[in-house]
Amino acid sequence: MATARDVEEVVQKLASDRARPRDEGVKLLGTWLQGDRAPTFCRLLARNTARAKPGHLASGATWPFLITALAKCVLADIAAKRRGATRSAAAGMLRAAVRCAEDARLSGHSLLLISVAKQLFSHILEVIKDAPSFQLEYSPILRQLLTVKEYRYQMKPRTYSNLVVLYMKKVATGFDANFSNQASSKEESFRCTWTLHVLLENPPGDYPDTMREEVLNGFCAIFSHIRREDGKLTSKLMECVNTFLLMDGPNLGDKSVEIHKAVQDFVLRSWLMTRDLRLKSLFITYAKIQLKLARAIPKVLERKNLLGVIMDDLDQNVNTEAGLLWCEASRDAKDMSLRCSLEELMDLSATIFYQAYKSPTPMRGDDEKKLKTEDVISRITNSLKKGSLCWIGTTCLLIHKYGYRVDKSLLISWLQACCQSLKSALSKANVIRSQDSLLWIIRALKEFSAMFIVNTREESHCLLTKGEMSTVEGYWQDIWNSLIHALPLFSPTALVADSALNLLGGMIMRIKSILQLCQKIHGTCKLLNNRHHRMPSFP
User: What's the domain of life for this entry (predicted)?
Assistant: First the structure.
């Protein structure tokens, strides 16, 4: 069992003016923070910290006092070995002490370091700035403290700004070195990028204005040196960009254009080449964020370039195997990641296609090569007829989000294409193998059903003429017949069967509601006609 005398012995050695007693104190503390002795030692410090009054935390057997003593030991080691040594046992022990103090299973309390949080952040900045080699021990401490809002709110804005700028420069230096082949150099670059991401994700309030320009310049410098995608390092860097845009995008104004000019070449070049689903998802998130910012700044995203990449990506996924989207088959992590990645791609594609439809970009010269010579609308129609899973899913989401803003003649042509795609999918020998395509086709037909069978939103442009109604009714009759005859084939795939029955049931209910409405109109007209005959005649 640890006692106050044991803690006092450790603190006295750490407070010594000589290096040897300090080293002995660090070793002695290490024996108390490891193994079976750790719980009693940590709980003793936690109880004393919880009981002590705010003015008495700087002395006695408390966590703040012990942490402060260790920080002074690190500074003493740096001062004594300014020219040569770059390591300090006290720095590693400070990391261990912070981890133990924050471990509720050991200490039994929370926020034990609240009184020294501000000093700790300033100490971390001072040490890493003057002795970069200590970032191996200090970066984990910084990341751990930042995730606790009560701690980071204690940090001075100037300290936070200086930390962000410092780590931004470290990340830029790592990329400027073209990723040294040494594994340790790559790992160090990743840790710096990781810490930068945690800093950007956990500011002590709003981003300081003085920091914004430094971050913008830092991202521009970093992406100007990236030549290839490099796994988890570039993924973490894209996380930093996305986090910065999410947190501060509306305040950037035209400055977001500068980031995109630096980032777009890397994103568009790596989009189709990377096999990293995590990185692809981050690219999609980046595009969505910039598209939202582009509402106020039309030129922030060169849509024609992104549109070409999106269409090529959808074509690459045309042969997606069954069991990866909306299925009852395997649900391991890899399949789930691919499923989420493709759904994110389809959601982004729906937005991009609608924007291209709403305000098409004229193609001249070299732009024709980037965007293809084929019109986006006809590309969607042709891909629907071919039964491409990702194109069908994209169209489904497009109708769901923007259907009432699309011309009804175009919707009718897409309905016809989906009808052909449904017949093609059901004509295959093995229907189970095309279950994902069937599911997305049925989901798309549900969206068409909401648009055409009954006008729930009373939008005038969705009201069909007599000729259009006749055409659409023919398509729905074909869809009804196809699904009714195919229901026995769906028995092994409950998800497809349920979705088909749900669509058929919805068609019945909507037709029933229309018939009831017609009956009411007929009754009202009859009543008005009777009243008209009873009205007195006027001269």
Answer: Eukaryota
